[in-house]
Design a protein that fits this description.
278 residues, alpha/beta, 7-stranded mixed beta sheet, 39% helix, 12% strand, globular
Length: 278
Amino acid sequence: MVALPSGPAPTHRSDREKLFRATPRLWRALMRVDRAVIALTGRLVITGDVPDELRGQPLLMAANHIGNLDPLVLIAACRERRISPRFVATGGLFDAPVTGSIMRAGRHVRADRGKASAAEALGKVVNALTEDANPVLVYPEGRLTLEPNMWPERGKTGVARMALAAGTPVVPISQWGAHEAMCYGMVRVESARDLWILFSSWLRAIVRRPTMRVHFGAPVDLSDLAADRVGDAARARDRIMRAITEGLIPLRIDEPEMPLHQDPTRPVTDKPSPWLSR
């Protein structure tokens, strides 16, 4: 477990539960279904936590992105810690008949790519942070990592800008093992065959039962940085990505270089992670 930062006295466990119960019923029900799916898929191991004094106020959580099953794994881990995460998602998910209802019920945050400026998208997230007590979970890398050994990529400054603009803490989340539960597949699912490739890899995982590890790290200190100061967004991004990487190292202690599980469908770049000490 990580050390909790100093601050106001933490809330009681009952207060934590009260905050979780304030989540819309449909989203809580779907989180229970999600936990059952992850339990069927493999073993979930969770370490660390979100400090009680950060609950019930604007909060960003930033996680590394390693596989298609990441969201389900992170939702299950958050549920175990009595957290109801909200994801930043593309407008297409909100416009679809079924997923749209789910996204709206969970109070997730819509970000229309190509339809709104970066400033407008940032404003939506900042507003969402201040209008709801549940944290917003984002992937700083912006995509599944294509780093040769699956370490975090450089990442973008979007998450850092959100945190600095809203003046909100950032809790780094490191995860490992979800990549074994479903293959990378293809960039876009365009046919039933594409879906079968993903689904069949998940069925094989049910037999293998991989261990999926999630670690909630200590909040990243951004108190000396400002949203309107040149270069601070990049500095904040660097601190967040380093914190995620540091939390990831002990999760894959037996796989410091190339992952033991090899996915032939996953493309790779020639750019190594900048966050490892070399």
